[in-house]
TrEMBL record:
SUPFAM superfamilies: Creatinase/aminopeptidase, Creatinase/prolidase N-terminal domain
Protein known as: Aminopeptidase P family protein
Cytoplasm among keywords: no
Peptidase M24 domain boundaries: 199-402
Residue ranges constituting the Creatinase N-terminal domain according to the UniProt record: 57-191
Domain of life the protein comes from: Bacteria
InterPro entries per the UniProt record, alphabetical: Creatin/AminoP/Spt16_N, Creatinase/aminopeptidase-like, Creatinase_N, Pept_M24, Peptidase_M24B
Pfam family membership, one: Peptidase_M24
GO molecular function annotation: aminopeptidase activity
Organism, scientific name: Alteromonas ponticola
Length: 429
């Protein structure tokens, strides 16, 4: 379960609206309405991934498969299925799978009664094999391979394929071995195209504009549910899809992903938000930390140190640098200032950042021992934080993409706690 799913499902940090008076709730609602009335959709001119682009992806995957001596790969519903075939579906106990052979047309296996729905988003290929409720769906995978004259070899399974799927397919394919399909899927998805970067840039623009509006609407007495509602509505009005939001106040901001503690905004409150959306399937992920009212000296010092760490990470992220070096450089700087060391609190208790693209969390990560060299087209979050248990936490997060030599911001971070939003940077592709 990734962060977005967790935040949507758990309700962490939510408190009842009853914590506020009727008048406070009405004022907050009026302010929300007046805020979102000024927002309009900004994604209408952005084109989704085309059929031609998906065909190019499949051809690249097949080229990698031939080099890796992989006969075919199997993918369940999720980002990779969407990436190659456009299918937007979900997983259940009934098999729906995409089969990409090392040469020839792709094929889909799905229940008979689901075929019309699956075809609604299928953009590449027309070979859909269906099975009835009493039948064994795994034999259809064998049939697909037989039709493409693939009688033996190695089948690659995408890293999130469930065991019962792998087990069922391999029982049907007695002449085959299996391996990870990650060299193929990651080999295609890790490096983003110019079009993918444009979609991510627009998603980040949506989220940053939403922050700008929500920051102006914060009021004393608001709880997380109200602030999250403001942010959700703002991102949707701006054209974002798959919106997700987190808001943590006061001592709860020291918990990076939230707590069930009741929280409301008061004078001097830290307000830590972590929010995002997608545009045509490509994600944003931005964190901001505000102070409601006048910040204390300690709040300013910690906020500024987090910002310095974020800039240090950005400056360290050069093409050819091992990704783990970026995390280590920032962590050592924080230790020199009395935080940590390593993951100890008070300090930075999580990795510095994660890959991002169609999924909010993708490989690779800014984390210790990550030896993958940064390369043009990689996209990652840059999100240092400092957390002081029992007091407060500060996190700043902006996503970067690697250029020919160095990192570039999608959104550049704020320079001070007094101007806490930041700005959208031009896309240099």
């Amino acid at each position: 379960m990734d962060k977005r799913t967790f935040l949507k499902a758990s309700g962490l940090g939510f408190t009842a609206l009853g914590a506020l008076s009727f008048g406070q709730m009405a004022n907050a609602q009026n302010k929300q309405t007046s805020s979102t009335d000024t927002l309009s959709n900004i994604v209408g001119d952005i084109k989704p991934i085309s059929v031609a682009e998906r065909r190019e992806r499949i051809a690249k995957a097949q080229s990698i498969m031939q080099k890796q001596n992989i006969a075919a790969i199997v993918i369940e519903p999720g980002a990779s299925m969407d990436y190659f075939a456009g299918i937007q579906w979900w997983r259940s106990e009934r098999l729906t799978a995409l089969v990409i052979p090392r040469e020839g047309d792709i094929a889909v296996v799905t229940p008979f009664f689901e075929e019309p729905s699956v075809r609604e988003t299928l953009t590449v290929g027309d070979d859909v094999r269906v099975w009835q409720e009493h039948e064994n769906p795994f034999t259809l995978v064998k049939q697909i391979l037989n039709d493409r004259k693939i009688k033996h070899g190695t089948i690659g399974f995408e890293s999130t394929v469930r065991y019962f799927v792998l087990d069922g397919i391999m029982k049907a394919l007695s002449n085959f071995n299996h391996t990870s399909a990650e060299p193929v899927t990651l080999g295609c998805r890790l490096i983003k195209s110019a079009h993918e970067l444009q979609l991510m840039h627009k998603a980040n623009e949506v989220t940053l504009k939403a922050y700008e509006h929500v920051w102006a609407q914060l009021e004393q007495g608001m709880d997380q549910q109200q602030v999250k509602a403001l942010m959700s509505e703002a991102q949707q009005q701006l054209g974002g899809s798959g919106v997700w939001n987190m808001a943590l106040f006061n001592e709860a901001s020291a918990y990076p992903h939230g707590t069930r503690q009741a929280q409301t905004i008061k004078e001097g409150s830290i307000v830590l938000m972590d929010c995002g959306c997608n545009v045509h399937g490509y994600q944003s992920d931005i964190s901001r930390t505000f102070v409601y009212g006048e910040p204390t000296k300690k709040q300013r010092q910690v906020w500024q140190l987090v910002r310095e760490g974020q800039q240090l990470a950005f400056d360290t992220a050069e093409v050819g640098t091992p990704a783990g070096t970026v995390d280590g450089t920032v962590r050592r700087m924080y230790a020199s200032k009395g935080f940590g060391p390593d993951y100890k609190l008070p300090g930075l208790s999580h990795r510095l950042g994660h890959g991002i693209g169609m999924e909010g969390h993708e490989k690779i990560n800014f984390v210790r021992n990550e030896k993958t060299l940064l390369a043009k087209g990689m996209c990652l979050s840059n999100e240092p934080g400092i957390y002081l248990p029992g007091e407060f936490g500060v996190r700043l997060e902006d996503c970067i993409y690697m250029g020919a030599e160095k990192a570039h911001w999608f959104t550049s971070p704020p320079e001070s706690l007094d101007k806490p939003i930041g700005k959208l940077e031009p896309l240099t592709v």
